Amino acid sequence: MARESEALPPVAILGAGSMGGAILRGLVRSGLAGGGVTVTNRTAAKASALGELSGVESIALEARHDGNTAAAASADIVLVGVKPAMVPDLLREIAPVLRAGTIVVSLAAGVTIETFEQILGPDVAVIRSMPNTPAVVGKAVTGIAAGSTAGPEVVAVVRRLFETCGAVVEVPESQIDALSTISGSGPAYVFLLIEEFTKAARGKGFADAEARLLAEQTFIGAAALLEASGEDPAELRRQVTSPKGTTERAIAVLQAARLDEVFAEATDAALARARELAAGGA
C-alpha cells in the first residue's frame, strides 16, 4: 500500500465545477498532486481561474474539443464530475483512450457503478463517490464504494485522494444513496437551521448583522467544541442544560416538536428521490 506522504499519480477531473473544483483545491493544498492534475471545463473563464493553481493544467472545452479525451488519456485517476445526465456520453467519449488499470471515480449522484462498468469495460477500476460541499474548506465527508474490479489498493489510493479535502467513509454501493441523505444533503439541513435560528434572533430585537453573528458563530463554535472534545453530542447538550434552567425549557419545546421524526421523514424523502433519479426519473 502506498505511503500517506507519497505523491498521487496523475489525476484528471472532467467537469471541474463546484465539487470538482473543491476537490482540486484540496489536492493542491495537500502537496500530494505530484503527478500533476488536468481539469476540464466548458468555458474559458472557468478554466482560466483553475489554471492559476499550482501544478494544474486547465482545459476549456469551448477552445479544445478533444479536451476530455486528452485529459483522460494522460491520467491514472479520472474523476467524472459532469451532470448525471451527461455521464454516459462522456464515458463513451473517453473509453477508447483509457489505459488498462486506470481508476475512474464518479462524482455524479444517482449514476450506478454498473453504468460505468458497462461502458468502460473490465480493464478499468470504478469507484463511486459522494462528497459534500464542505470540501471547499477541507471539511468534507466523502462516501466511497468500490466497483467489481476495484481492489484494496485502488480503494486506498482513492481514499488518500479524498482525504485531502476531509474525512472518508467506505460503504457498499447499496448504502451510497442513504449516505447522500445524511452527509451529502446534510450541509443544507444545517444551513436551514442557521437560517431559522437567525430569524429567531431578529425576532428578539437584534439587528441583521448581530443576529447573523450570534446564530452562525454559535453553530461554528458548537461544532468546533464537538470536534475538539470528542464527547458525544448528547453529553455536550446535557452539560449546557442546567436543571430547571432556560436551556432545559427551550430543549423541551424542541423535543416536543419531534425533531427525531422530522429528520427521519426528511432523510426518507431524500432517499426516495435518490432512488427515483437512479431509476432514470426526471
UniProtKB/TrEMBL annotation:
Domain Pyrroline-5-carboxylate reductase dimerisation: 173-277
A GO term for molecular function: pyrroline-5-carboxylate reductase activity
Catalytic activity: L-proline + NADP(+) = (S)-1-pyrroline-5-carboxylate + NADPH + 2 H(+); L-proline + NAD(+) = (S)-1-pyrroline-5-carboxylate + NADH + 2 H(+)
Subcellular location, principal: cytoplasm
Enzyme Commission number(s) from the entry: 1.5.1.2
Pathway named in the protein's UniProt entry: Amino-acid biosynthesis; L-proline biosynthesis; L-proline from L-glutamate 5-semialdehyde: step 1/1
Key word NADP present: yes
InterPro entries membership: 6-PGluconate_DH-like_C_sf, NAD(P)-bd_dom_sf, P5C_Rdtase_cat_N, P5CR-like_CS, P5CR_dimer, Pyrroline-COOH_reductase
Gene3D superfamilies registered for this protein in UniProt: NAD(P)-binding Rossmann-like Domain (3.40.50.720), ProC C-terminal domain-like (1.10.3730.10)
NCBIfam families cross-referenced by the UniProt entry: proC
Task performed by this protein: Catalyzes the reduction of 1-pyrroline-5-carboxylate (PCA) to L-proline.
PANTHER family in alphabetical order: PYRROLINE-5-CARBOXYLATE REDUCTASE, PYRROLINE-5-CARBOXYLATE REDUCTASE 3
Protein name in UniProt: Pyrroline-5-carboxylate reductase
Species: Microbacterium immunditiarum
Lineage, uppermost ranks: Bacteria, Bacillati, Actinomycetota, Actinomycetes, Micrococcales
Gene name, Swiss-Prot/TrEMBL: proC
